[in-house]
Amino acid sequence: MQLLLLLLLLLPFPSLPLPPSLSPSTVWDLRVSFLPSSVPTLSGRPVPACSFTLPVVFSPEAGYEPPQGELLAWAPPSSPSPAPPFSFSSCSFKLSEDPADRKDGLWVWGLFKDPLYPFLLLKLDARDAPLTKARDAEVLPGMTYYAQLGHRMSGEGGGAARGSLKAPRGVDLSGADLVIRRPSVVKADLVGLARAEVYDEKVVGKVEICNPRSVEAARIGAVP
Q: Residue span of the signal peptide, if any (predicted)?
């Protein structure tokens, strides 16, 4: 009996799968959907309703608060994939409070159990994207898109480490409008000596960052 108890104590402690995170350890699907006639194609025709999905990982920059960094396109290293129809030259993210309703510094790490950044701000510099595989296909022109996705922590455990019986907490991201910005200059004073640049936003579609799975699961094509 004593030997059995000793063997049980020597067994590895059960570990729980790591939760979704904004790090290179989690693969997400970036889904971009365009409304019909929301933007013109390169030939000037209205774009039809269409959508694109691209696997990505988050690559946060060290030492920044609030957290920020880049989204990188992801593909299994052992099996090269053809170039996706939709791609980007850069895609940056930043966790944020509501840009339109600042809380005078209340969203500070250490004041609460979790950092209260309810939004993920996205800036996506897209390349030209053919809408079909045909040689004479209409092409969605490359441009810069913006989005303000919802961001929250999910699950229980308050950030328990791997190997703990408590489930570590993960990240939930909710979808948002995909917008383009058109700059316009307005007078900043009554006499017109000072000018300020503001933006008019136009909704052209929707964006989601969804279907999180571990890099290991993504490599074998596991469905989340």
A: 1-17
